[in-house]
Amino acid sequence: MYNTTELKAAVEQHIENLGLDQRKPANLYQPMAYILSLKGKRIRPILTLLAYQAVSGANPMKAMNLAVAVEVFHNFTLVHDDIMDRAPVRRGNATVHIKWNENIAILSGDALLAFSMDLVTGDFPERAAPLMKEYTRVSLAVCEGQMEDMDLALQEHATIPDYLEMIRKKTAVLLGGCMSLGSLAGGADEEIVGQFREFGESLGIGFQLQDDLMDAFPPEGFGKQVGGDIIENKKTYLLLKAQELADPSQRKTIAALMAENSDSKVEKMLEIFRQLDIESHTQALIHRYFEKAKYLGQALSQKTHFEPLRSYLQEIASRKI
Amino acid sequence: MYNTTELKAAVEQHIENLGLDQRKPANLYQPMAYILSLKGKRIRPILTLLAYQAVSGANPMKAMNLAVAVEVFHNFTLVHDDIMDRAPVRRGNATVHIKWNENIAILSGDALLAFSMDLVTGDFPERAAPLMKEYTRVSLAVCEGQMEDMDLALQEHATIPDYLEMIRKKTAVLLGGCMSLGSLAGGADEEIVGQFREFGESLGIGFQLQDDLMDAFPPEGFGKQVGGDIIENKKTYLLLKAQELADPSQRKTIAALMAENSDSKVEKMLEIFRQLDIESHTQALIHRYFEKAKYLGQALSQKTHFEPLRSYLQEIASRKI
């Protein structure tokens, strides 16, 4: 049994052992090594390892290539999304298209996706075809989610179902993919894989809604700037729900606030959110997704070695890691 | 037995049957359908089908998903290369980043690569892992080749070996990949797969050098503009060989020509090429690659049903198609 710290250290070590920074041409591989070295929490590979272990009962390290594939994929999306979003900073460091240039960012992003492919199937030859089928489904859904996010930003009348489907694809599908790929590699049948997938997606949507909520209503001592999404007019669940519940006068205020760029914009929008009790509405929706995950997790506990996965998720949910 | 026209028609039909233009979000899938609808010669998928048939003796149509995967991959590289090269036109039509925009081109290129993955392995579950390993090797090499091409353009002292390695990766590796993937899917062992791969790469380098040569010394009745590479100062084999063979005075003239943008630039550079007999030097090198391919082809003729592949390549070489 490994604890979370050990799993994370093993993931870091395995990423380093890929030796990307030694490969040529340097302009292709250095950016790949760079983005992967901006150490995140490595939630996705750890979830993959634990889903594999839950099903197989085997040493989770056996799924390390698959786990790292998911992390490499995630970093491919970061590099390309940062170009599309014109984002200069990622995890406190310059983004790839800023540190190098846009062409290099496009190409090293491509190479990250290409590099991940063999990592998915290499250690599980007898399940390589279904693994690649699932990986393709996940990859395409993530691309669809990013496109829907860009589409949504330009849309006058975005709906809440549109938004939920977008965040499902853009962020939750990959968490579901960690679970489905890990369990598939571990030898699970279609039904179990499906439960793992849905479990991961439900959690993913819940986490994303939590992020949206914290942007407007951060918990005590939360370091981040409040209202970044409001300043950018991001069509989050909070804004869409407020537009839905607003009376004509409030709706006019929201529209006016979205057109302005004043210092008081955030405070005024939060005031509307408070009038409409948006925090409770959002919390209720988050609760529904987490309840669904809990229900699926209970079913999976009966059939798999689910405890390490459950306890890791507990750690994440309490934001200890 | 199918003839080339039938194989090409079947490839076109299969691409249409993917139904990309029906999928949502339209901003993601329409550009994918669009680039694939700009019908090229479909050389790569046809080579894949014929390599599969050569080894297995089976109906080549059984490898159609794999063949189309290679074509989809090729189109992924076109979409992203066109962004990087700021190319406005592809096969007489607007490129994706011009017809839509750059973000859409990045993302639909990504989705083409993602979409291709399952097509590679789906029909050959028992060989899915080695197929994906080979596909990953090819994909990474193509990314490396594109990066080396961009690096080379900025390099003061590019060498002929640098150039040959770049074109090997940028264009020949994918032709080799058609052969290696097709033969692997057909059940070939490592030795045969290796011979197919090298056969395809040798042909690919030969074809690329032929393209370079035709840019400067087109055959009678060749429609294309002469000297496009010269105008752009592209470091082709012809230019690098001329720099190598030039005496100090010719070397000075070449450098001066590269710095100028006059109407007579092409004619003056061609004059240097003629003085140094660059056409013969290039033809000699092309001949060496084609001889190597011929030699490998003869070996493969002993062990596989090679004739349809050989005769298709003859058609390509004589530029009938």
Could you walk me through the main structural features you see in this protein, from its secondary elements to its overall organization?
The structure is a homodimer of 321-residue chains. With 321 residues, the first copy, chain A, is mainly α. Chain A is built from 15 helices and 2 strands. In chain A, helix 3 (43-56) crosses helix 8. The longest helix of chain A has 27 residues, at 128-154. The first copy, chain A, is globular. The two termini of chain A are 19 Å apart. The interface between A and B is large, with 43 and 43 residues.
Strand content of chain A: under 5%
Mean pLDDT of chain A: 96
Helix/strand/pairing category of chain A? mainly alpha
Low-confidence stretches of chain A: none
Write down the overall geometry of chain A: globular
Q: Return Rg of chain A in Å.
A: 20 Å
Distance between the first and last residues' Cα of chain A: 19 Å
Number of strands of chain A: 2
Please report the two chains with the greatest interface, counting residues with C-beta closer than 8 angstroms to the partner's C-beta. A-B, 43 and 43 residues
| Order of the strands making up the biggest sheet of chain A | 1-2
Query: Could you give the order of the helices and strands of chain A?
Result: HHHHEEHHHHHHHHHHH
